[in-house]
Amino acid sequence: MVPTKVEITLRKADQLAWGKLEDPNYKPEPEPVEEDFLEIPESYQPDWDINDDDISDSDEEEAPEVTQQKITEQITEGLMKKQQEMQNSKRKEVEEEMKR
Question: In what ranges is there compositional bias, type Polar residues (predicted)?
Fold first, then answer.
């Protein structure tokens, strides 16, 4: 026999009353924002190791050029693969149903 009854236990994520959880017009109180992390000390000086006199090109990395066409081809290829996988999975489902 196959069981026909399922028991589910739910647990509230918030400590609010169930009535407030079900009220569609209920708006939770905004959580207090800690302002300590927003304040920057006046004497704050970032410790960056930057030399303004050095303007050589050796610091810049040459990024490979990726054209819009290549990006489009990659996206199209990915979509085609997904579509092919979906068709294959549907085909397998139909084949399994036919075997039954």
Answer: 66-75
Which amino acid is residue 81, in one-letter code? K
Residue spans of the domains in the chain: they are 67-100
H-state helical runs in the chain: 18-22, 68-99
CA-to-CA separations, 53 to 50, 56, 58, 98, in angstroms, rounded: 9, 9, 14, 76
Has this prediction a pTM greater than 0.90? no
Q: Output b/e per residue, 65-80; b: 16+ Cβ within 10 A.
A: eeeeeeeeeeeeeeee
- pLDDT confidence band for 68 (50 / 70 / 90): confident
